[in-house]
Write a structure and sequence with these properties.
By secondary structure, this protein is mostly beta strands. The chain has five helices and 19 strands. Strand 5 and strand 6 form a beta hairpin. Helix 1 crosses helix 5. Pfam families: PNPOx_N (PF01243).
Length: 285
């Protein structure tokens, strides 16, 4: 049985990478191996993406804690200690990204709330290459109180500049069987603000799986998360995204905003300055 659904297959065939995708797809499994479990327990940050059970809108959330707040508690189960509440039985995609080592790991599955947070029973467990991840040598936990969150229906000047300055964001997508959370990176300016309700970014060459774009091909709902690695401020966006293909083979994703949530000083982590990935292309002017 293929690890890919019809949306991913359609894009793999359109780009002509089905064979490569089949090879890479062998890395997708359900078991959390010891090296993956050890990696999870070292992380102070976890991104969780999925649909809101009441509105159906897709969001990406940043969770933080003392390393060990995320841990494997079974061969196919991850437990997360957090005060953030999620609905019972929803499907989620999670990604743990470590800027210190430029490693990332994704666990997708079904979420169950617990007395101390939630568990995720894994359907997919896999790692990705370090391409487009900015290296940040260290972080510190700071005593920081989150500011008052603001709900927005369009980006103002402050939020637009926040997006333009970003070298990283996280993308949550869904399909009929589950959800996925992935990383997007590039030099500042790689995400462009076309209008207060529209963003665009280039889809750089990757692992040929087309998990995120395959989801968007079948279901355009998407959630974006931008974070300031120094101040901890976050900008969460929900809306719809679609991929355009140019004659030269390049791909551009266009995101239309439905709602946004801006939270100053949301996260208690302060990371060191970035060393940009050598794989990053120069942004288009």
């Amino acid at each position: 049985m293929s690890v890919y659904h019809a949306g991913s297959r359609a894009l793999q065939d359109q780009v002509g990478v089905r064979g490569r995708a089949d090879h890479v797809g062998r890395s997708l499994g359900q078991d959390i191996k010891p090296v993956a479990a050890a990696f999870l327990e070292q992380q102070p940050l976890l991104i969780v993406g999925g649909p809101d059970p009441e509105t159906g809108r897709v969001w990406a959330h940043a969770l933080t804690g003392t390393p060990g707040f995320v841990r494997a508690t079974g061969p196919r189960r991850v437990s997360v200690h957090t005060a953030h509440a999620f609905g019972r039985g929803i499907t989620v995609g999670t990604i743990a990204l470590d800027p210190r080592t430029r490693r990332r790991m994704r666990v997708n599955g079904r979420l169950t709330p617990t007395a101390t947070g939630f568990t995720v029973d894994a359907d997919q467990v896999f790692a990705n290459c370090p391409r487009y991840i900015q290296r940040r040598e260290s972080y510190e936990t700071v005593d920081r109180s989150p500011g008052v969150s603001r709900h927005l229906t369009g980006l103002g000047d402050e939020e637009a500049e926040f997006v333009r300055a970003a070298d990283t964001f996280f993308l949550a997508t869904v399909n009929a069987a589950g959800a996925d959370a992935s990383h997007r990176g590039g030099n500042p300016g790689f995400v462009q603000v076309a209008s207060p309700r529209e963003l665009t970014w280039p889809d750089y060459p990757g692992n040929a799986m087309f998990l995120s774009l395959g989801n968007l091909y079948a279901d355009p709902r998407a959630g974006l998360l931008f974070l300031d690695w120094e101040t901890g401020s976050t900008l969460q966006l929900t809306g719809e995204a679609r991929t355009g293909f140019a004659e030269d083979g390049t791909r551009t994703v266009r995101f239309t905003l439905t709602e946004a949530l801006w939270t100053p000083n949301a996260l208690p982590l302060r990371w060191s300055a970035p060393e940009y990935s050598p794989a990053n292309p120069e942004p288009a002017r």
